[in-house]
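Repro case for the chain-ordering regression, as requested:
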Amino acid sequence: MSEDRKVFLNNKTLEGMAREAKKLEVASSLSGLQTSGGRNRAIFKRDGSYPDGELVFLPSPAVPPAGATKICDGRLTAEGQAIDITAFRRSV
Amino acid sequence: MKHRLTALALGCAALAGCASFDGMPEPIFAAKATVDDVTQTFPFDGVVMAMAGKEAGPRKIYRNRVAASYLMAIDARYFEFRRRLSRNVKGGNLGFDIALLGLTGTAAMFEKAADELAAAATGVAGARASLNRELYFERTLPALIGLMDAQRLEVRTAILRGLKESEDRYTVQELFADLARYEAAASLDGAIQKVSQIAGVEAAKAELDFSDTIELCEAPDDVAEARMAYAKELHLGRTTPAGQARNARAAVVAGLAGAEPTTDASAYAAQQQAIADALLEICTAETLATFKQQVDQDP
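-- result from build under test --
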């Protein structure tokens, strides 16, 4: 059961995808974001954690939101455009 | 005589067609004057010496003043560089030469500009040989400028972040090193190399296999919160025999046949993930209630 959990993201905006990904952090934490053929997916590490703090996806290069820590760099298709993004977690 | 005047006029008109014109307004800060002023006012050695005699508070103020001046000077030179590029392309009289770039090699304000310059120098050799000169500038220049801007922004962001720190955490020497990187980021050669890297990464990304990716319903916020709370509740109970039994029942309901109460970490992790997988497929309050009922009914 050590394989990552990989889930399609269906929201079209970065904000929506961040919200969607947050809901999926059950006994796992976000570790990657990828796009291919216009579809996006989030990769979750099955580490048994229940991380607090909302997720924020910003186009790269991004200035971290105040008090946020970087999770990973990735690439997502948002509103038809594939863009490099950086994922952050806000502190609670 | 009349024919000669007409011919002369036509010739002048043709020559005028070759004249350069700018695609940007004349800058307020002339690059050369700005650079000369900044490098004379804040020479590196002088800045380091001046810093030595200051207290912590004034050090930060002085360092940030130096940084702002150099950023302005580098920007002034960069904008001049862009104007020259724009003028050359629009005028159609481009003389492609590395010297034109102005921001690399001997023209650089900082002569040792980190890895970027060395990397860029190797990158341009192959790129210059393979790219058609006209095509290169007219069609790819906007993209290359965009990349340069992005790379400059990246370094600038790091500098601005550093300037929030005290001088002992972000020293003036580090600042100068970052300024050199900032200057080097504005290099067409580096941008070409970046394009090659991006192309390589894009090729790799195009081959991503999503066949192991699952489709899940997106739960409304209240359901997502409720199932998360339930998962945490089960998890927190794992230290007691009753909680272990409850987790085992939940794992069975989740589809992990034969799950038994356990204190073994890996056995519990398997149960926990099975429960999480099952909960993530629940997107309505009713289904969640049913799941809970099956778990919490009398054993």
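Ordering looks correct now. The CA atoms of residues 248 and 261 of chain B lie 5 Å apart.
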